[in-house]
Each structure stands twice: as structure tokens, then as C-alpha cells.
Amino acid sequence: MRQAAALVLALLAAGCDRQAPAPTSAGRYMLGEPYAMGGVWSYPREDFGLEEGGVAAVLPRGRPGQRTANGEAYDPDRLVAAHRTLQLPAIISVWNLENGREIKVRVNDRGPAQPGRVVGLSPRAAQLLGIPDNGAAQVRIRVETGPSQALAGALPNAERPAIAVAAAPRATVETEALPPLAGTREAGGRVAPIRATARPVADVRPEPPPDPLPETVTSRPAQPGRLVVEAGSFFRRDLAQRQAARIPGVRPRVEPFGGGRQPQYRVVTGSFPDIAAADRAVGAVLRAGLPEVRLLVE
Questions:
Q1: Domain 226-298 class?
Q2: What average pLDDT does range 52-60 have in this prediction?
């Protein structure tokens, strides 16, 4: 009987000692310098309104606890991701266009290394989206503006130190009772003076999103698109045509895009029937010495 009671107490003590998973957010907010990865150059920039379609890759499991580009602890069993240019960290929604599943992930690393991939997903994030290990899928990603801005304001930022702004001094409001106008009578005697009271303005800042993010999967209609490869964009058609002439074997063409007074021109090839065929076109563009290739879903 004593042994059973001791066992129960030991189990209760063990349950009390269990701790919640440590947050990944011990890192910093960052952009970083331009860099080359997988033969492709990337130029990090702050963009809280980014929305783009492309192909997602699944990140290797790696070693839990290894540090990401912004100093956070990588955990393959959490909803985290890698992006080549976004500010780190950022919260994005990822919509699998092939089956309609959508989740939110925390972008805290650079990548993926494979050319022609718009985002790299942790194994757990890929599993929830229905993407097998070592697989790929058409996706559309969108930055969650509010949560991402909250992260940017809450984390240390060595690239852009915060500037302390002193609050403007508040003037004292004084009131005075004026005599009644000529030809009028006071109602019920003298008018009581109006007293103005200053109310403090609360410094309301949005709360950063939870860490780790909840595993919430929503369903949307499946909407696979066209796979095209872009090999550069220009403000002059002749420069785009010159770029297209450098890529043999994939039949590139020059297309105008964008609005405004000054049109732009892009060099594209495709569409392609599957990701494997699009990857071969990406390889052809890289072999031609053009390192800014992108695989898009339109």
C-alpha cells in the first residue's frame, strides 16, 4: 500500500515538473545583406504586404535546437518556414493550391536552397498541408500584416535601432465663466463654469502572435495554376529581348506587365505541365548564367 502511494506521488511530481515548450522567439528582427544560395541571388527587403504564388519545398529535419538566420531555435515539429527575402521573423499564411489546405507559419530562416522554390516548410507544416517529405506543391503565400508588424516592434533590431521620441508637453486648459450677452437672462442663476479634464492617451501596441503558432488548418477551394519561369524584368523591351536571346532551348518570350505610364517587360517561358518540367527550365536559365530566375504559379 505504501509503495502504491509513493508511486502516485512520484507521478504527480513528474507531471508538475513538465514544462511548456520553450519559445523560438529568442532571436532578433533582421533583413540582412544580399546573398547567393543555390546559384540564385536574393535581396532581402521589408514587405508587410507580400503575396505571391510559387512552389513550396519541405525543409530537412536537421538537428532540433540549431539556430536559424535570425538566431531562433529551429524545431522541425513546429510551424516554421524559410523565405529568401522576407523580414525575419514574419507570419505568413500558406495555401496549398493543390488540395485547398491553409495554415499560418512563422518565417524565421533563409531559404530554401533549391532554386525555383518560394518557401521552405518545416516537416510538421508540410504534413498539415498534405505535402510529403521530399515533395513539393503549388502554394500561394501571404504576409499576415498585423502579426508581422507586431513581431517587428517587439524584437531587438540591430539593423535599425529604435529612436526614443519624447512625448509632446501637454498644455493646461483653463476655463472662465463669461457674463451673459446683453438682452439675455441667466437660466436659474449663474452658469457653472465648464471644467476640461485631460485624459491620458494609452500607448496601445498589438500583441505579438503566440509562439509556437497553433496548428489550425482551414479549408479553401483547390486552385492549381500555371507554372511559368521568369528570367528577369526590365523597363526596356530591347533589353528584355536581349536577355531572352541568351536562353537556349526553352523558347522564352517577352511580355509586358504592370500598369502606369512606363510599362515593364519580363522574360518568361512556359507554362509547364508539372513541377519537374518547370525545374528543367529553371536549370536551363541558370546554365545560361542568369541567377535571378523565379518559378511562379499564376
A1: alpha beta
A2: 97
